[in-house]
Amino acid sequence: MDAHSRGRADEIDPADQWVLNPQTGNYELRLNHSGGQSSLPSHPRGATTPGPRSGGRSRTAEPGRGADHGRGADRGHGADHGRGAERSRTATEAPVPGQRRRRVTEGTTGGQPSAGRRKRKPQKSRKKKVLLWTGGTMAVVLVAGAASAYALYSHFDGNIDTVDVAGAGSGGFKKDQAVNILLIGTDKRTGDGNEGYGDKSSPGHADTTILFHVSKDRTNATAMSIPRDLITEIPDCETKQPDGSTATIPGKAADRFNNSLGQDGRDPGCTMRTVQKLTGLTVDHFMMADFNAVKEMTTAVGGVKVCLAKPVDDPKSHLKLPAGESTIMGEQALAFVRTRSSFGNKSDLDRIQVQQQFLSSMIRQMKSDDTLTSPTKLYGLAEAATNALTVDTGIGSIKKLKSLAEELAKIDTKNITFATLPVVDNPDEPTPITVVPHPTQAPQLFAMMQSDTSLTEVKKQQQDAKNAQAALLKGARATASRVRVDVYNGSGITGAAQKTIDWLQNDQGVLRSSNKSNAPEKAAKTTLTYAPNQADQARKLADMMGLPASALKPGTQNAGEREPMTLVLGADFKGAGVPITGPAKAPDGVQKVVADKQVCAK
């Protein structure tokens, strides 16, 4: 996919695809690498037809490919590409150049290598070069398509809608830091193709939301789905108004997560702030798509394979599929990811699992040779993706999205894991219809993401952690009943010391623990100070709390028989029972789907 900078994408040289015809002043697409000039006709630049998107956009009339691509048949591979491909040339310029000869490319004539050309050595797998993305497969395909020819940049740039999120997020991802992208699927009913799914006047909700966390070293990524019926705090948020002013939308202490978007005038920046408040992770950017994204992109890629453990015939979503493997696209694909009546116990949590399986399959399809070697598919995907995509202004151009996708492309698919935020039924409802975060599993999952620990247990990270822990904790452990410790709260979190005491006494059996209230000052890191003769107690407490080596502060003089150790909770404290360093593996009960494996929906 190194097509940008005049590279080759397997058998395809982007510079050979687009050739200037001086007779018309247009660039023409040539797909046949063994033939001469493309047979696709050009057309006068003046002929235009209204585009299908709202907002009155017009597009230059193009000779289509014979089938609707994206949002209308007017988007073919013709000479002009909407707003971005017009050129001014005269007929006196040099004739259209013939196709450049490849030095090491293998051509095909009747299935055999073309005469006079050397066979190219096999290259490394294209799978390691593909620009992959989860719910944001949109970013991948738009980069892949844009790289086909630099002349298309302005065309695709014009397709992308942006939102100024009024200071939400980090201000921009950095190549040497972890990256967090919020992927939002809205159920907005307005706009082309969306009116038929219910209330067409609805401003939409955060119907499907995935926080995509990429580790600092790019070895792994976690895509965490957030249930739309989760009760959480929606903080106050600033939104940009049409006149350029800023308005503050009041927050709510406890509301459904899906109300963080669309309701009361909230924009995606409000959803970003809600996720940051919930997880403790800074959200760098967002990408949002509507119903059309699923329909158009699955069609452009030629369909997505799904597997069912049993046949489905759902009259509500109109999904009808046999047991086993099927290839779905368009309306059928949208029905698959929207249905709640066909899988599991018909809950939103089961629907999330099906969506994760679908997205994993789409990633695999994106990485397939069938997609990567087809300029027609790549263009169609780029067109469909950019038309369906809304992003924050920080990544609101092809160039910026390309930089982001290059970072995402470094992740091996086997180390991309979809997970669902662990939840329990809302205890405040007599008949629960909403959920709340699991009191221990949710903070543990957040801690893993904060510490870049892979849910697929990247071997090097695991071994490094084990080696450090082994060196620190060599020696005997006291029993929990012998551990004496005073707990001070320097974390800045109200009630942190008492919650830790409750956990130590009730769950761990450390009965000789005391709450000493607030520390003299706030502490950046959690520390455990102990005497040499308390080392066995310190090891036991370190085991329980997941303390790193840097947290242990041994003294030089022995302590009295009943003298306690001193534990000061710092800003790195994430919750009672949550390891300070983050768990070494996902807590039991967390639902996971690995992107490189096929799973049949049940």
Any key phrases for this structure?
3 domains; alpha+beta; 5-stranded mixed beta sheet; Aminopeptidase; Alpha-Beta Plaits; 8-stranded mixed beta sheet; 602 residues; single chain; 29 strands
Mind explaining what this structure looks like?
It is a single chain. This protein has 602 residues and is an alpha+beta fold. It folds into three domains: 1-123, no CATH class; 137-437, Aminopeptidase (3-Layer(aba) Sandwich), CATH 3.40.630.190; 471-569, Alpha-Beta Plaits (2-Layer Sandwich). Helices cover 24% and strands 21% of the residues. It is built from 14 helices and 29 strands. 43% of the residues are buried. Mean pLDDT is 75; it is low at 1-16, 32-119 and 124-149.
What layout of secondary structure does this protein have?
Layout: H1 14-17, E1 18-21, E2 26-29, E3 48-50, E4 58-60, E5 108-109, E6 112-113, H2 137-146, H3 153-159, E7 161-163, E8 179-186, E9 206-214, E10 221-226, E11 231-234, E12 237-240, E13 246-249, E14 252-256, H4 268-279, E15 285-289, H5 291-300, E16 304-308, E17 312-314, E18 319-321, E19 324-328, H6 330-338, H7 348-366, H8 369-372, H9 375-388, E20 389-392, H10 398-408, E21 416-420, E22 423-425, E23 435-437, H11 441-450, H12 459-472, E24 484-489, H13 496-507, E25 512-518, E26 527-530, H14 535-545, E27 552-554, E28 565-569, E29 592-594
Parallel strand pairs: 7-20, 8-15, 10-21, 24-25, 24-28, 26-27
Antiparallel strand pairs: 1-2, 3-4, 5-6, 8-9, 9-10, 11-14, 12-13, 15-20, 16-19, 17-18, 21-29, 22-23, 26-28
